[in-house]
Amino acid sequence: MERPVPEPTPGHTLVRLSAASVSHLDLNVVDGKFGILPDLPSIPGTGGSGIVLASDTHPEGSLVHLRGKALGLRRDGCWAEHALVPDGAVEAVPEGTDPALACSYFSPAGTAWAAIHSVAAVQPGERVLVTGAAGAVGALTVQVAARAGAEVVGVVGRRAKLAHVPAPAKAVLADDLSEEAVGGLVDVVIDTVGGPVLRDALPLVRPRGRVGLVGYTAGREFTVDLADFLLADVALLPVNLMTRGKEVAADVKRLLADLSAGELTLSIERYGLEDLAEAVRRLRTGEAVGKVVLDLT
Ligand SMILES: NC(=O)c1ccc[n+]([C@@H]2O[C@H](COP(=O)([O-])OP(=O)(O)OC[C@H]3O[C@@H](n4cnc5c(N)ncnc54)[C@H](OP(=O)(O)O)[C@@H]3O)[C@@H](O)[C@H]2O)c1
Question: What pTM did the predictor assign?
C-alpha cells in the first residue's frame, strides 16, 4: 500500500525506518485476536528502529528505537518506510547498534528480565526450566537465569532446535519432558509456549515453586484440576511486559550493551519487505529461530 510520507507535527518525531520487528503480538493484532486493536486501515508493527528525520526533542540523524505509546496497536506502526510517532515512543540507541537488534531487543530482553527477576525472583542455586528455549524470549530467559546463578533446563518442541538452546542450559525435547529428563523437580518454570506445554511442565515444579507465564503460541487455553492445583501448591504468575516496561528499562539497557558486545546472544532472521509473507509464515509455524525482523533500508 502506498501512502505519502507523514508531515512532521509538534510533539511527534518523523523517522526513516531501518528495521521493524515481526512479533507474535503483531500477528495477534493482524488476526484481530488482541485486546487492543486499531481502526482500519492501519499499519502494523509494534517495534522499529530508524533514523530521525525531524523532531523537536530527538537529534536529527540519530539512531532510535520506536516502541510503546500504542504503536502498531491504536496508531500506525513500523512496517513502513516512514513513521510519525509521539516523541515518547522514541528512545535513543547507541550509535553503531545493529538496527535489527535495536528494533527487536526490548521485548525479549525486557520480558526475560521481568520473568526471572521481577516475577519469579530467581535466587542463586535454584533450578529453572524455560520452555520455548530457542525462541527469542526463551533464549534470553535462559541466559538471564544462568547469570542469576540458576541451573537452567531449556525445553524445545523440535529436535532441530536443541542446538539453539543457549549454553549452559541442558536442552530437553518437549516430547521427552519428565522429572527424570529434567534431573529432578525445579524451583521455577518460565513458560513462553502455553497450552499443552504449560500443562506438562506444571507437575515438574516443587511445592511452593513458581511458574511465570509469558506466552501462548501453542494454545491460549489449558485446563487444570483444582484439587491437583491446590495439592501441588505452585504459584502461577503472569509476566506482563506492558505493565513492567518502566521498571525493567534500566536493566534492559545493560542487556542491549551486552547483546551488542556479543556477551549475550539473540538470533535474528532478516527479511526484506517483499518477503513479509515468508517472515510471517516462519513465525506462525514456530520454524523461526529467535527474532524475525524486516530490513527496511
Ligand atoms: N507477556 C509478555 O509481556 C510478552 C512479551 C513478549 C513476548 N510474549 C509472548 O511470548 C511468546 C514467545 O515470544 P517469542 O518472541 O519468544 O516467540 P518465538 O521466538 O517465536 O518463540 C516461541 C516458541 O514457541 C514455540 N511454539 C510452539 N508451538 C508453536 C506454534 N504453533 N507456533 C509458533 N511457535 C510455537 C516454538 O518453540 P518450539 O519450536 O521449541 O516449540 C517457538 O520457538 C509469544 O506468545 C509472545 O506473544 C509475551
Answer: 0.96
